[in-house]
Amino acid sequence: MIEGDASPLSLLTLLALLGALAYAAAAGSAVLHARAVGTAPVAAVSAPARESARLLVQRRRTVPGADALLWRLGGALLPVAAALAALVVPLGSTAVSDLSVGVVWFNAMEVLAWCAVWLLGWGANSVWGLVGGYRFLIQGLSYELPHMFALITAALGAGSLRVGDIVAAQEDVWFAVLMPAAFAVYLVSALAMAFWGPFDAPVGRDAAGGAAAEPSGADRLVLLAGRYMLLAVVAAMAVPLFLGGGAGPLLPGWAWSLVKTLAVLGALVWTGHRVPTVRMDRFTEVGWMVLLPLSLLQALVVSVLVLVR
Amino acid sequence: MAETVVFAVCAVGAVASGAAVFVVDSMARATFALLASFLFAAVPLLLLELSYLGVLVILMMVMEMMVMVVFMIMYMMNPAGLMPMSMVHNKAGSLAVAAVTFAVLAAGVFLVPWPAREGSPPADPTRQLAEAIMGPHMLVMMLVGMVLFATMVASVVLSTPRGRYDRYGDDLKRTRPDDPIGGGLGR
Amino acid sequence: MTLEAFLLLAAALFSVGLFGALSQQSVVMVMMGLELMINGVIVAAAALWYFVSPERPDGQVLVLVAITAMAVEMAAGFAVTTAIFRARDIDMVDAADDLGDRRQEQGQEHGQSREQDR
């Protein structure tokens, strides 16, 4: 199942794929938006490219009293965090680096998004930015523990923190079937991590754009690209963790990985357009009173299964 | 050779950013200097083949510093460092104590005859650690769990100004708690 | 890379942290110093595990305990800071030296906020 691919994945290929997936997510979002407002959906496919070109030539807005060092650091950190997290995501059976602690690495790198959003909010010396940054921290504290338990449940089912082993352990049955609650929690936290859809309060319109209120020009482009990259990498990680990695009939492993990733990514983007924004104070209680016990129970069930098997 | 260079860079970086914590004016910068120090100090752990503990330190420190920055800014006057002020006492004395401590420790490092190495690192140090805390060292793990749980309870008790009488009324008969911020479960 | 190099790094981190813990007035900054000191302990424990007895897991377990100590220190520290700030409007260690033999003028300086509470 997992010995189909010949050439190991190179870093450049990975970055190109990540960029393509991020663009697909942005284009999909633009198409959904175009359909909702009644403009031509086909033209919206190129909307992200046009928006990028516009942002590239746009003049940067300066803010008095901005902490430029931290601000730029925050903006740059978002795509870097996504790329670093992607290092352990396998395409078919090959990852750029299949670390022995891949799951923990993925988790550590995606948490860098907390820093990125908070720094973006703080550095701009703008009250809306700071509101957005704080909102993301509250959101992070609500989703991160259930998310960690979802990740660790998948690792528990495979008896290994290596992503390759987790894929191999799903030869008979996908973890999405074996541990549906963990998969659901993972998808919810994936949306929250990329502050997308119902969890877009950190960059919400009610706070004038929140952490994204002040960045303009190239800064804003990096921020938006980083956010879509984060969404793409979280969707891509769902495939080896819960959807059997590159397993599938006919097509080679890497193709199945891509198809599944696109399916998850499409579902996430679609959900983002269907579900209204959830307020922070509401999600916090849901996270701690529902998602956390749910993911703990799921971990308990899986550990009993592992012991019995 | 490459490892030595990485170690040297990270060691200098860790100490320099650690010192920067107490030099910079802005609390946000101080927090992120501390985070940089922790990240630099996690790399030597990775060099020692402790991949799990190294990545764990990175994961934990990022989250911890993001919580810390909230408190830093909440409790410091002048959080952004826009009006530089000195918030230290007995700086010279502290510097002397720290310097003497470092001198003593450094002397100890070079004067103590460290025992020769016994054996070699296992193929998977993560497995070694896991088997230790789930086997012969389980008491440590249990105590750590208890301490963390006690800390959670104690910090909530200490930091919350409202008790159950505030929430459920003097006779605890209120069905819905009277909270300033509502939750998401319709309680 | 030798054991001495790692221990020297640990000693430097510990000393920098000690300086911060002793010299800073703000409770939160003192905690930052304490964190740096514990970080030195982590580096030293890891190095001793690798260079002295890598076959036994004790060094790794010690690192785990030090990481836990760090988490507990921060949680408890912030809880105490919050509690003391709520009770007395204090965020400086000098104003919270109830157990120390305070000098007269210092006692008067911070007496007012305490009078209000009592």
UniProtKB/TrEMBL annotation, chain A:
It comes from the Bacteria. The keyword Chloroplast does not apply. Pfam families: NADHdh (PF00146). It is found in: Cell membrane; Membrane. One of its GO terms (molecular function) is NADH dehydrogenase activity. GO terms for biological process: aerobic respiration. Keywords: Membrane, NAD, Transmembrane, Transmembrane helix. This is NADH-quinone oxidoreductase subunit H. One of its GO terms (cellular component) is plasma membrane. Belongs to the complex I subunit 1 family. The chain crosses the membrane at residues 69-91, 111-131, 143-161, 173-196, 228-247, 253-271, 283-308. Its main location: membrane. InterPro entries: NADH_UbQ_OxRdtase_su1/FPO. It is a multi-pass membrane protein.
TrEMBL record, chain B:
Its EC number is 7.1.1.-. Residues 168-179 have a biased composition (Basic and acidic residues). Its main location: membrane. It is an enzyme of class 7 (translocase). Keywords: Cell membrane, Membrane, NAD, Quinone, Transmembrane, Transmembrane helix, Ubiquinone. Belongs to the complex I subunit 6 family. This is NADH-quinone oxidoreductase subunit J.
UniProtKB/TrEMBL annotation, chain C:
It is a multi-pass membrane protein. It is an enzyme of class 7 (translocase). GO terms for molecular function: NADH dehydrogenase (quinone) (non-electrogenic) activity; quinone binding. It catalyses: a quinone + NADH + 5 H(+)(in) = a quinol + NAD(+) + 4 H(+)(out). The keyword Translocase applies. Keywords: Cell membrane, Membrane, NAD, Quinone, Translocase, Transmembrane, Transmembrane helix, Transport. The chain crosses the membrane at residues 33-52, 61-85. It is found in: Cell membrane; Membrane. InterPro entries: NADH_UbQ_OxRdtase_chain4L/K (IPR001133), NUOK/Mnh_C1-like (IPR039428). Its EC number is 7.1.1.-. The keyword Zinc-finger does not apply. Residues 99-118 have a biased composition (Basic and acidic residues). One of its GO terms (cellular component) is plasma membrane. Residues 98-118 are annotated as: Disordered. NDH-1 shuttles electrons from NADH, via FMN and iron-sulfur (Fe-S) centers, to quinones in the respiratory chain. The immediate electron acceptor for the enzyme in this species is believed to be a menaquinone. Couples the redox reaction to proton translocation (for every two electrons transferred, four hydrogen ions are translocated across the cytoplasmic membrane), and thus conserves the redox energy in a proton gradient. Belongs to the complex I subunit 4L family. NDH-1 is composed of 14 different subunits. Subunits NuoA, H, J, K, L, M, N constitute the membrane sector of the complex. NCBIfam families: PRK05715.1-2. This is NADH-quinone oxidoreductase subunit K. It comes from Nocardiopsis aegyptia. The gene is nuoK.
